[in-house]
């Protein structure tokens, strides 16, 4: 199977090991992964801040690039970005009256998956041969939980990681307070939400917190590092890539 990697802006700029880990997992399972070098932002930040018209060329570029990749599927280590591709791209195109672009967006969205749902729903795999001998707790990010509805798919993958002790996170479904520009525009509220999330993480005694979105991990990880808690954050893809 030929799979196009959507690296995401955060992985490209700040967390390249997340994108590399995604490739490692997919290639270990016997699939060909290609990286369309012309890819840029999916346009989520434009849409979420109200710049729908400005998002149109970004959406069009994304569609052009991944159509040209001629792949069976496109996969991203991000529920947030896949949520935008699946639920916003066609809407953006329709808002400006470009029905052809909307149809193309819909077609591409049906072949675009977040990593955990791709592994479980498309490949039918829950054991990817990972080994990670640490105590880990899992935070289900808002977009993956509420927009993509990935459910327990990440947990099903984590439960098959050899050597790992998976610890349930109290109030796991509560937002960490990041929310993109929400953390900037509503800093006090975001900080309070982060404090609650960190309190629950630290109560588990886990060595590491994992999630499927680098953005949430960046937010929580920043807070944990300022506390010098010793608890690290690690993306789901990075755990699954360990062997």
Give the number of domains: 2
CATH class value of the largest domain: Alpha Beta
Contiguous helical run count: 14
Determine the mean pLDDT: 95
Note the quaternary state here: single chain
Alpha carbon gap, first and last residue: 22 Å
The neighbouring-strand order within the major sheet is: 2-1-3-4
CATH architecture call of the largest domain: 3-Layer(aba) Sandwich
**Proportion of beta-strand residues:** 5-15%
Parts with pLDDT < 50 across at least 5 consecutive residues: none
The backbone outline, from C-alpha atoms, is globular
Describe the fold and architecture.
This protein is α/β, with parallel strands linked by helices and 243 residues long. It has two domains: 2-122, Rossmann fold (3-Layer(aba) Sandwich), CATH 3.40.50; 135-241, Rossmann fold (3-Layer(aba) Sandwich), CATH 3.40.50. Helix content is 52%, strand content 12%. It has helices at residues 9-13, 16-28, 44-48, 52-68, 79-87, 89-95, 99-109, 115-122, 142-147, 153-158, 182-185, 187-203, 214-226, 236-241; strands at 2-5, 32-34, 73-76, 112-114, 135-138, 165-167, 208-211, 232-235. Helix 4 (52-68) packs across helix 7 (99-109), helix 5 packs across helix 7 (99-109) and helix 6 (89-95) packs antiparallel against helix 7.
Ordered list of secondary-structure elements with their pairings:
Elements: E1 2-5, H1 9-13, H2 16-28, E2 32-34, H3 44-48, H4 52-68, E3 73-76, H5 79-87, H6 89-95, H7 99-109, E4 112-114, H8 115-122, E5 135-138, H9 142-147, H10 153-158, E6 165-167, H11 182-185, H12 187-203, E7 208-211, H13 214-226, E8 232-235, H14 236-241
Parallel strand pairs: 1-2, 1-3, 3-4, 5-6, 5-7, 7-8
Helix pairs in contact: 4-6, 4-7, 5-7, 6-7, 12-13
């Amino acid at each position: 199977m030929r799979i196009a990697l959507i690296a995401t802006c955060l992985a490209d700029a700040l967390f390249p090991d997340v994108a590399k880990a995604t490739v490692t997992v997919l290639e270990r399972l016997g699939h060909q992964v290609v990286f369309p070098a012309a890819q840029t932002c999916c346009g989520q930040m434009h849409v979420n801040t109200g710049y729908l018209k400005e998002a149109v060329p970004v959406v069009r570029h994304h569609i052009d690039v991944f159509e040209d990749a001629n792949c069976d599927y496109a996969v991203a280590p991000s529920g947030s970005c896949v949520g935008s591709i699946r639920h916003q791209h066609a809407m953006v195109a329709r808002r400006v009256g470009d029905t052809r672009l909307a149809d193309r967006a819909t077609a591409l969205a049906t072949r675009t998956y977040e990593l955990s749902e791709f592994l479980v729903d498309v490949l039918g795999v829950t054991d990817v041969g990972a080994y990670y001998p640490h105590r880990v707790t899992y935070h289900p990010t808002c977009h993956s939980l509420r927009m993509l509805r990935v459910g327990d798919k990440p947990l099903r993958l984590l439960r098959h990681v050899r050597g790992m002790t998976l610890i349930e996170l109290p109030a796991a479904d509560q937002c960490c307070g990041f929310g993109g520009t929400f953390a900037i525009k509503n800093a006090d509220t975001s900080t309070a939400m982060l404090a609650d999330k960190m309190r629950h993480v630290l109560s588990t005694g886990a060595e590491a917190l994992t999630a499927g979105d680098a953005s949430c991990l960046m937010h929580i990880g920043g807070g944990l590092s300022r506390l010098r808690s010793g608890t690290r954050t690690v993306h789901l893809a990075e755990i699954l890539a360990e062997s």
